[in-house]
Fold this protein.
Amino acid sequence: MPDKAVKILLTTGILCTAFAGLLWATMQDGTQYYLEVEEVMADPASWDGKPLQVHGYAANVMRRPKTLDYRFEIADSVEGRTHVLRAVYTGIVPDTFDNHAEVVATGRLDGDTFHIDADGIMAKCPSKYEERPTVAGDYNSASGAAASN
């Protein structure tokens, strides 16, 4: 093989190896599991210390006075809660965060408590995205024009 071909193959091999290593390192640090509360609570020991995004509903929200420290529960449903995950968070919460708010929290499970990362809590606003229920007879055409009485 000529010297030029060896240099090209060697350079290509080094670049591919470096790219693969960088990709691997990025994927290891940035990967998070997206789970429902009941999935986490089915086997909490297997999720201990791993980065998670947990979806559920906020319940029993308590804030320490004059601080940004919150303690609350993430439940599997608003009513008839069968699975509950205790959570702690320090930081500013979204305006829509309150009891019964649908939340997605990012953090790590440590024993029986879920520690939420900074900026790791999102509260969904269902009224903004769900269609309003309509009553039969409210509309007189497919265009949605209101019926006049």
